[in-house]
Amino acid sequence: MAVRSLWAGRLRVQRLLASTAAWESKGWPLPFSTATQRTAGEDCRSEDPPEELGPSLAERTLRVKDLTLRYQRAVADCENIRRRTQRCVEDAKIFGIQSFCKDLVEVADILEKTTECISEESEPENQKLTLEKVFRGLLLLEAKLKSVFAKHGLEKLTPIGDKYDPREHELICHVPAGVGVQPGTVALVRQDGYKLHVRTIRLARVEVAVESQRRL
Question: Assembly state and interactors (predicted)?
Fold first, then answer.
């Protein structure tokens, strides 16, 4: 085994020497020589692209200033929008009923003219005429109020005969169900309720019919 190993090593050395002699005879530099390594290193350095330099300090400073300015402008715009929105909300609270108040002014005019018909200076023989004027004025006043209410979505609730609904009715008491009156329905309205569009703003005060044995 030892002889065989020595013989194999000798063959490898001979092959290496032969290879080296062939390279030198042709004038080629040896693969592992210092010159070859230096040339390869120089070629690699020449082919590699130069490293790109990052932005300079001045460029970074300008970019930071630009971003800061944009941020400040965005904050200022948001604040202006918030103030305008708040002002619109406040105006809506103050002037939201402007149209309703304008219509009520006409009602006030009718009421004022009606009250002018009654004075301490009215003579007894003119009392009948005065009462007729007052009555006509009150009728006109009621018609005007109904017109104003309808215009603004204010609906009067007079639920006689309707089924009791706690969302629209305030129960005052129970009464025996009479002829033609179904138990659980409104038999009498003590005070009318009002609904603004779909929202009840005042419950109708009612008496509800029940069977006699269930009377409270």
Answer: Probable component of the PAM complex at least composed of a mitochondrial HSP70 protein, GRPEL1 or GRPEL2, TIMM44, TIMM16/PAM16 and TIMM14/DNAJC19.
Residue 163 lies in a domain: yes
- Predicted model pTM: 0.51
pLDDT tens sequence across 48-98: 555 555 678 888 888 899 999 999 999 999 999 999 999 888 888 777 788
| CATH (domain of 168) | 2.30.22.10
pLDDT of residue 57: 82
Q: Which tokens in the block code for residue 124?
A: 């007894």
Taking the C-alpha atoms of residue 133 and residue 155, their distance in angstroms, rounded to an integer, is 28
Count the neighbouring beta carbons within 10 Å of the beta carbon of residue 169: 22
For residue 195, give the nearest of 161, 164, 149 by alpha carbon.
149
Range of the domain at 135: 57-152
What is the Cα–Cα distance from 47 to 42, expressed in whole angstroms? Answer: 9
Which is it for strands 204-210 and 169-176: parallel, antiparallel or unpaired? parallel
Give the CA count within 13 Å in the CB-facing half-sphere of 186. Answer: 24
